[in-house]
Design brief:
Layout lengths: L13 E4 L3 H13 L5 E4 L2 H10 L4 E5 L7 H11 L4 E6 L4 H9 L4 E4 L6 H36 L1 H12 L7 H27 L10
Parallel strand pairs: 1-2, 1-3, 3-4, 4-5
Helix pairs in contact: 2-3, 5-7, 6-7
Length: about 210
Amino acid sequence: MAAPHPTSKYERPILIVDDEWSMREVLEKVLREAGYTQLDTAESGSEALEKIKARTFDAVILDMRLPGLDGIQVLREAKKLRPRSEFIMLTGYASTDSAIDAVNLEAFGYLTKPLDDLKQIEEMISRALDRVMAREELHHLIAALRRLATKLEANAPVLESLQVAEALGTDGMQLADRELLDTIRGIGDMCDRAEKIEEASWRDSDPPKSP
């Protein structure tokens, strides 16, 4: 059985990937002082992928320029492994092509180094984790609706009797029964709409950019 997700975003696992020791230290310090407790680091793309394979990180801060596998290559492979993780890209040079690549691969956003205001990374991490948790909540709500719909469908005789009463007209059907029938019919539609919203949220084509 999978471990339950932490209820606080400050307990969500975050991975910091940068080949510069000083940058890893600074980012870890900033996030720890902001209250985040589950922090890990990697100094190369290959090390990052090994850690991502072994553990789900809700947010990953990923440098574009890394020895061996670069940030875009890591992002491409990591998204296959953990499509629900959010990735924040760091770049030390202004590259429109790299930014476009990151957006096309559904990175949450990107920041340019040097980070003049370290609050930027804290704020972007906070927004990324908020989105992860909102999607999880939506997923759980859809699952609950599906379970309810299944339970109601299993009670077919009740549903059939309500449909017969409806066919007889308002005189043969109590208001409460009509409302119940409308509710049963609406649950499946609600599930379908919610699933479309959830699916669309994973294809967000306009993630936050660098402030």
